[in-house]
Amino acid sequence: MSNFPRVVEKLCEASKKEYANPYSSMEWPEALDPEGWYMSPELLSIYGMPEYERLTEGERKKLSFYEAVNFFSLNIHGEKSLVEGLARQLYQKGNQDLSPYLHHFLDEENKHMVYFGGFCTRYAGKVYRDRKMVFPRDYAPGEEGFLFFAKVLIFEEIVDLYNVKMSKDARLAPIARQINLSHHRDEMRHLVFGRNLVKELFHRCAAVWPAEVVQGVRRYLAGYFSATWKEYYNPDVYKDAGLEEPYRLQEAAMNRPEARAHRKKISEGCIRYFLENHILEEEPVI
User: Fold this and answer.
1) Within a domain: 260
2) Is residue 140 part of a domain?
3) Which of 283, 284, 277, 267 is nearest to 205 (CA)?
4) Most buried of 99, 100, 153, 210 (most Cβ within 10 A)?
5) DSSP summary character for residue 122
6) Which domain holds residue 105?
C-alpha cells in the first residue's frame, strides 16, 4: 500500500499522544440552560425559511437543542455501524498493516458515542431513531470493504465541518462546543486515514472489477451522499420543537435552493476528493 504503513504508524503515535478518558474529560452540567444555543443558528435545517423567521428567540433556541440532539443521534448511529464494521476488518487477510490503527479507531469511536449518547440521554431522554434501511446484497471481491470505508469517509467529512464550525461558535453552550471540539480532534486523524485508504482500495479493486461493478459503486456512493444529507432534515425534530406540519416542513426545507447551496458548500471538499481520484465521474445530486 505505497507509504500507507508509515501513515498508519504516525496516526497510531498521534492517537496515543491524544488519548483521553471519556468519563473524566467532559464536564456535564446538571441541567441545560433553556436560554442557550446548542447548534449554530446558521446550521439549523430551516434557517432562513419563513417558518424560522416567525419563531421567537426562545423558540429558535429550543429548535437548536433538538437539532443538536438529532446531529448527535446521527453520529451515534453512524458510529455504531462504524464500530461493527471496524471490528469485522480487524486482522482480516490483507489488513495486517491497518489493524494497529483500527484498534485506536475503534476506541475513539466508542468514546464519541459516550459523548453523544451522554448529551442525548441526559438532556433529551432519548436518541432519535435511525432512518437508514440496509438491504442484504451480493458484492464483488473487495466491494463490501471499499464501500464501508468510503461511506465512513463521506459521513465523517460532513460531520467534521459541522464540528469545526460549532466548536468555534462562542454563542453555543460550553458543553455543545466541548463535544464538537473533542470529536473534531479525533476526526482529523480518521479523515487522514480514510482519505489514504479509500483511494488505495478503489484503485486496487477497480483495476479488476468489471465495468458494471465500477458503475454500480459510483451510483451507490452518489446515492449515499443524498441519503446522508436527508437525515439532517428530521420531522421528529420539528415535532418536538413545536413546529407545525413536520413532514411538509422537511420536504420544503430540503428542496429550497439555499439548502442545496449549503449542502454543496459543506460537501465540496469531499466531492472534489472523490472526483480527483476518479472514484466518482460526476458530482452527485445532493
Assistant:
1) yes
2) no
3) 277
4) 153
5) I
6) 4-132+145-276
- 240 is written with which cell numbers? 418536538
DSSP, residue by residue, 36-58? SBSS-GGGSTTTTSHHHHTS-HH
**pLDDT tens track, the chain, 286 positions:** 467 778 888 888 888 888 777 777 788 999 999 999 999 999 999 999 999 999 999 999 999 999 999 999 999 998 888 778 777 776 666 666 777 888 788 788 888 888 999 999 999 999 999 877 777 889 999 999 899 999 999 999 999 999 999 999 999 999 999 999 998 888 888 898 889 889 999 999 999 999 999 999 999 999 999 999 999 999 999 999 999 999 999 999 999 999 999 999 999 999 999 999 999 999 999 9
**Count of domains observed in the chain:** 1
- 172 in helix, strand or coil? strand
CATH number at 257 reads 1.10.620.20
Cell numbers representing residue 220 in the block = 451507490
Q: Which three cell numbers stand for residue 143?
A: 466491494
Sign of CA pseudo-dihedral 214, 217, 221, 227: positive
Domain-embedded: residue 73: yes
